[in-house]
Amino acid sequence: MTNMDTIRASYEADLALVEDSKMLGDFWTKYLSKSGEIQKLMGGIKSVPKEEKKAYGQAVNEVKTWAQGLYDAKKEEMDKKAMMARYDDETIDVTLPAASTGAGNLHPLTCIKNEIIDVFAGMGFEIFEGPEIEDDDHNFTRLNVLKDHPSRDMQDTFWLTEDLLLRTHTSPGQIRVMDKGELPIKVLVPGKVFRSDSDATHSPMFSQMEGLVVDKHITLCDLQGMLDQFVKALFSDEAKTRLRPSYFPFTEPSVEVDVTCFKCGGKGCSLCKGTGWIEVLGGGIVNNRVLENCNIDSNEYSGLAFGIGIERIAMLKYGINHMGKLFENDIEFLKQFKA
Ligand code: PHE
User: Fold this and answer.
1) Which ligand 1 atom sits nearest the alpha carbon of residue 254?
2) Which of 36, 37, 151, 327 gives a 20 to 30 Å CA spacing to 102?
3) How far is ligand 1, taken at its centre, from the CA of residue 263, in Å?
4) pTM score, two decimals?
5) Distance 142 CA to ligand 1 centre (A)
6) Range 277-305 average pLDDT
């Protein structure tokens, strides 16, 4: 019995010293495991006189229950402490300023493309996209650029085979739309085009936006009216357009479209090389031969077409002096164009 009192005393003293879960584990081994002090008390019953065995057993059981109770309480206290420590550790200060996510922005070419589409969509144009690999027929022949005709040299072509090529302009889209046989037509054909050409204002790959309208009584006035709205929306309300005679095999008459210089307003400066005008695109009235090539009766229908160079518009609008900048993906350069 005295032994039991000693054990109770040392049990309490030892438990009071326990500070962490490792110490609690050691404590459990020392007292509560199969070979622990409390279990040993049970073994001691052998040397107890018969008449005292019952009382001894009861006393040992009492010690056991008491010891387990203290242990459980200590464990609960320690678990709680550990949880509180974790709470403190993991607390988030929701009032701290958030880390910046560095939101991106659209590429300037995408912005210009979207702006152009917006303007023409407002006039009722739909979008059509054709393939980047074309055949001779769509890219040249049916657009009235006949084999061995000198006009083929206007565009330096990347040939893939005798017949296949990387399209040199978005104009083959005109043929593909007219071939559908649905009239009237009012489409925009955006896309990448390819020419073997490279300097400050040319790149082997660039983007165009083709426009095609086919209906009854379409004239050059319609073309000028649409393009006038387009440059006013893209550059400024004061911008004026002027048509100059030009040549494309697929339009007749053909025009080059100039806009009043948006840097000097038409007085003449370095951007417009003193002329007051800047060339922005080519266009014209669809050549009757092209209509006939697509089985459209040119006595009944007429069309207008234009081709806008998207990089050129972006360079003019943003004052970019080298086309390569639009393809280098230099993030510091691109960050400047917040749409
Ligand atoms: N396809 C011509 C070019 O790439 C532009 C153009 C399109 C001209 C439509 C007239 C009509 O240069």
Assistant:
1) 10
2) 327
3) 26
4) 0.71
5) 14
6) 97
